[in-house]
Design a protein that fits this description.
Strand order of the largest sheet: 2-3-1-4-8-7-5-6
CATH topology of the largest domain: VC0802-like
Helix content: 25-40%
CATH class of the largest domain: Alpha Beta
Number of domains: 2
Largest sheet: 8 strands, mixed
Number of helices: 10
Oligomer: single chain
Distance between the termini: 60 Å
Amino acid sequence: MHPPLVARCVRGLESVLAAEILDRGLGTVTALRHRAVHFAVHFGPTARAPRPRTADDVFLLAAQGGDPGRTKPDLTALTGLADRTDPGRLLSRRRALLPAADRPTGIDVSASFLGRRTFSRYDAEDAVGTVLARRLGLPYHSRRTGEAPPPGTWGWRLTLDGGHATLMARIDDRPAHRRPYKHRTVPGTLHPPVAAALAALADLRPGHTVLDPCCGAGTLLIEAALTRPGVHCHGFDLSPGAVAAARANARSLPVTVRRSDAGRLPVPDGFADRVLCNPPWGAQVRPGGVLAADPSRWWAEVRRVLAPDGTAVLLLPDPAALTDAVRHRLTPVHVQRVRLAGAQPFVVLLRPDEGRLA
């Protein structure tokens, strides 16, 4: 028997997450749903917790049913969902995948739902959490207060997507998107699983030179180095604070970070096999240096540093920016919308062509 797991991700990256699970042999994909990939693993003596880099988190599937509805009286169905779980079996499966895990000292639940409801997420969390805590004989930590759960608390997840109500138990002690390398951060820092998805879409190979012209805290380069050992990563940023943050985060990895203007990169033509970047278009970080006066210089420089057979993978706020990309002889070959922090940016893959500038 292969009990199901659920990997959660940013909306729009479900197919990328499923591909990673399959490519790395982490399990057998059984379903793709809203922000979720269901997959099965073999629970044997050598089983270990799967940790796909493009996932926000990974859970044991505890119970599933139909979405109960949109009104407060419908919450009673969620208590039934919690009653159908087998906490003892879930603890056993968790220990099989995570042998070093301590017995939990409490329970907390995080809920989310699609569409308008007459109940809050806290109502849904409490309806499920109080039942789970009673069945496990553990205290329940409600998130209504805004206080972080105490150490040792076992995190659970409840999602209502209009069709399904899904209750899950986290495998690891903390969410997968909280990377241990993240010692420093700067404004506009990219969500690590999204950075991992960009690196996955770049089709990296050992020996590739990877460049990020506006590297910020270094998240994209670090995820590239961890996704494909053997790549050579180079980051640049105009901000001394960003350079210091990236160096601190990447200190044990083959990532070189220097201060430079993204409009005048100190590298030769055709230097990079892959350009990975979340450019500063002004939403959280405003462009500086050459780009502040001439934003189109960004595209000219990307085209200059990219190898003739290279690929650029970028996160853009608006596909209208691709007009400038095409004018600078960069051809879009893949465009994918994602939902991130309330915005809907686009992941774009571009390759150079040999046509003349328009």
